């Protein structure tokens, strides 16, 4: 289950929230709204691409609001190809290999082939 408790984001004149929401595990959810309503901002908060200005996000009982994006284990396919901008090329490659479950010798072999 994912729980949003008083989650807020502020950027200039834009303000999102506070949002209080419980999303049960094992269910599909849709985020709908007009352009500028905050859908992309909310996704960025959930993924860790932007920090919240207030509130917290709990996933499976663990508070993750300040957990780095690469440590959350969430997947996201943006409209345009994007990497983690705060990571260098090698760190982005390492993240992708770990996300695919590669470890040990197979991990190092694939990493060296990509570099």
From TrEMBL:
Keywords: ATP-binding, Nucleotide-binding, Transport. Pfam families: ABC_tran. Residues 18-106 form the ABC transporter domain. One of its GO terms (molecular function) is ATP hydrolysis activity. Coiled coil: none annotated. PANTHER family: SPERMIDINE/PUTRESCINE IMPORT ATP-BINDING PROTEIN POTA (PTHR42781), SPERMIDINE_PUTRESCINE IMPORT ATP-BINDING PROTEIN POTA (PTHR42781:SF4). This is ATP-binding cassette domain-containing protein. It comes from Nitratifractor salsuginis.
């Amino acid at each position: 289950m994912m729980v949003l408790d008083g989650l807020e984001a502020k950027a200039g004149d834009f303000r999102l929230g506070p949002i209080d929401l419980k999303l049960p595990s094992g269910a599909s959810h849709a985020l709908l709204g007009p352009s500028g309503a905050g859908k992309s901002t909310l996704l960025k908060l959930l993924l860790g691409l932007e920090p919240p200005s207030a509130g917290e996000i709990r996933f499976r009982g663990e508070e993750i609001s300040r957990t780095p994006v690469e440590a959350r284990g969430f997947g996201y396919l943006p409209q345009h190809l994007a990497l983690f901008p705060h990571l260098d090329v090698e760190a982005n490659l390492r993240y992708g290999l770990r996300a695919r479950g590669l470890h040990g010798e197979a991990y190092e072999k694939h990493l060296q082939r990509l570099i």
